# Entry
Amino acid sequence: MSLVNIKIEGVPYQVDSSLTILEAARQCGYEIPSLCTFNHGECNQGSCRVCLVEATGARGLVASCVYPVSEGMEIRISTPKATEARRRSVELLLSNHSMNCQQCEKNGHCELLHVAQLTGAREGAFAGVRSETHIDQLAPALVRDTSKCILCGRCIARCSNAHGLGILGFENRGFKTFVSPAENRSFADSPCIQCGQCVNVCPTGALMEHSQIDLVDKAFRDGKYVIIQAAPAVRAALGEEFGYKVGTPVTGKMIAAMRRLGFYRVYDVNFGADLTIMEEGTELLHRLTEGGVLPMITSCSPGWVNYAEYNYSDLLPHLSSCKSPHQMQGAIIKSYWAQQHDIDPKDIFVVSVMPCIAKKFERQREQLKVNGLEDVDAVITTRELAKMIKRSGIVFNKLPDEDWDQDIMGDYTGAGVIFGVTGGVMEAALRTVYFKLTGKEKDKITFDEVKGHDAGIREASIDINGTVVNVAIASGMKSAKVLLDQIREGKSKYQFIEIMGCPGGCINGGGQPFIKPTLMPNEDLDIIDTYKEKRAKALYSEDERQVIRQSHNNPQIIELYDKFLGEPNSHKAHELLHTTYAAREGFNEIK
Amino acid sequence: MAKLSANAVAKILEICDRYTDEKTPLMMILSDIQNEYGYIPLEVQELVSARTGISVAEIYGVVTFYSFFSLTPKGKYIIGCCLGTACYVKGAQQIIDKFSDVLKIKPGETSADGLFTLDALRCIGACGIAPAVSINGQVHPKMSVDQVVKIVEDLKAKEGAAA
# Structure
């Protein structure tokens, strides 16, 4: 690393010579208007021209996102020439943009609107012909509206970087160009796993989750018993929607808010997570001792399940037959809970708050229905919950901290909490498997070797009383593919593998609050690199605060088995808590 | 993917394997397939994707970007009318309109009998002999509207004799 001397607005600075003008300016305390929030190769094409500045040694204005600094360079951001050019660039983008900002779901998080405000861009400055609009609302999880797309290509890059999938691409040429799955198909008719990573990076409202708030509203109007359950990762990120710093857990306020929204019961999906561990841990022990298909792979992540069904259908027997935690809990609410409260399951409406949009797809899977009823009737994302809170006049920050409803399924353990981060399901399962194999609890409760917060593969050999269990953890399909190919080639040395669809696990799910550094002036400059770690810490700290930290010690779980299910993997448990998978054709024929 | 014959699958895979040493083999693979079959439908793109690891969306993007590639079968005779500046000022628009009239297809389309495809080309570098028309790569110089009907009739007659 070598340093160069530059001047910005006449003030001298020393910066790393490998930086672009945009990066250097950021370090020196300037925020040049730009659409490059994700400057990790996910957009570095310099094509939007929003970040134009004057720099000595260059002919004309330069795009600061791609232009490197050099010794003696003098940079001017504020000259009339530069400010006018930036305004023009944004006006050109707006000239082919749907301008219904007030009804746009992205309002408040839109980077284009932000730079339009910064640069003073005027609507209609270049009014004229607009390119044709393509809208895809067929997929249960996400919606695409090309009238809002600025063709930056971040979604395309993210799909490849996270999953090696490349579902999205540019189609056609010139003015007719748009971003779409091949053949301008719906996400529903292409091998898209509906994880929503593309939604997370979209600077505008061109890609958004398929909102199900209206389903929840209808259930209230219909007078149903509307029960809400929130996934672990939601509490680690919901606060960001209300101005809290990234990584602030807001469990108590979240519960208070959900109660004020009128839900009949407010439950934690951690109970379902504990239940999952009981079932999945038992399944793993069966497979280990009775020669079942190994390695066994977790099945909590619907994005991952979609990927497996499209791309590795030969390996489906490796997937645990367990439903994901919120589906299990939904099934228990509509059976055991309904029975205990003498309520007809048809009158119950279960809403899951998830960090995930693939759960919207998952909940309508045929294989998950019990007696024709869906376990879960609506899935809303962390972002959608924030919208419901905001529209209801609830001042989130001033809420008291409250606790979950305690009847029947209020208890949860630290093991359930960490489901929300990559490695968490593995660790939770190991805590219980350790107990089952040795008859006692592990002295040091945690298995730190499987902890993490980012994409990539981790592995460990766990010696439990002489039984060695080789485990591996992957998040993001690019990493998962490595482990899956090993299995296909017969070279896998593992007995148990955890796979999560999104890089980093649920904390980085496609339904979590947007991380847009330019819109987060109170966060550190490196927030794009650190947010996953911060959210993960919030979950691990909640685990440490719990008195009970192993799923099998959850008293209400024990009671559930005593009174209703019998034992893990019993006939009744299989009926309610387990599922099947089926191969799917990626590009099915469209009639 | 079920629609492709075993022969076609083998041929396409063979084409993919011709360029394993290339860093960016996609254009060459697609060119060869276009030349071999006259078009590159989605099933074929899926096969190329599976063999090369390049995503279907990216391949589809390349196929729709370049007018040389086609998603639908092209006719036996591809009539390309140059509409570059020199040809245009020499009356190329009237010529392509006449072809359009006679063949009853718009530029970019293929006739129902599968014989003719009409393409509008940008400059093909034959300005000295403008207006130029290229039929299956063979260039017809200094075209006039009057010649159009005869050219089409001749080609049809040739096909009739062959059949």
